[in-house]
Amino acid sequence: MGTTQFPQATAALERTIRYVKDFPELGVIFQDLTPALADAEAFREIIKALAQAARDCGAELIGGLDARGFLLGSAVAYELGLGVVAIRKKGKLPPPVIREEYSLEYGTACLEIPAEGMDLAGRKIVLIDDVLATGGTLVAAGSLLRRSGAEVVGHAVVLEVPGLGGREKLGTSPLVVVHP
What does this protein do (predicted)? Predict the structure, then answer.
């Protein structure tokens, strides 16, 4: 599927993104989506674009990654009349959990989902997150869901940080970037 153009969402993001130099470390320019999420028009356009991406991928369920992916994924799931799987950071869920450790651009982390109470076998899931950087978080979430029997049918993010190789790590699953 590749990168898709969403002109209204792109314009809203260009109007609202805040750029922060040297955060979280020297040489990094952090793209803060907080102002976009607080702006009703921008938020609406972002959700419409992500929902279109999930619909095009054939989503039956949305996977929202902790933490901004929760906000975005929940709104997309609501828009499409689907459920949402909250993919949590380590230690936020009671046991038993299924866990996946991974590397990210600034260290290591771990994601978890409940091992009981959700039947994900055979479900087609689109993963939603705010930013694709190195791809570690999305790859770990996909692995976690596949271990639960689900099928990851696509990925949709608001922004992509170029040059970090995240896109290549996602393999053949479709990737939609709202604001290229």
Answer: Catalyzes a salvage reaction resulting in the formation of AMP, that is energically less costly than de novo synthesis.
Decide: helix, strand or coil at residue 96.
Answer: coil
- Tens-binned pLDDT, residue by residue, of the chain (180 aa): 444 489 999 999 999 999 999 998 898 889 999 999 999 999 999 999 999 999 999 999 999 999 999 999 999 999 999 999 999 999 999 999 999 998 766 678 999 999 999 999 999 999 999 999 889 999 999 999 999 999 999 999 999 998 889 999 998 989 999 998
| Sign of the alpha-carbon torsion through 31, 25, 107, 38 | negative
Global confidence as pTM: 0.93
Query: 102 in a domain, yes or no?
Result: yes
Structural domain boundaries, residue 117: 7-177
Cis before 141 (ω within 30): no
Residues with catalytic function: 68, 105
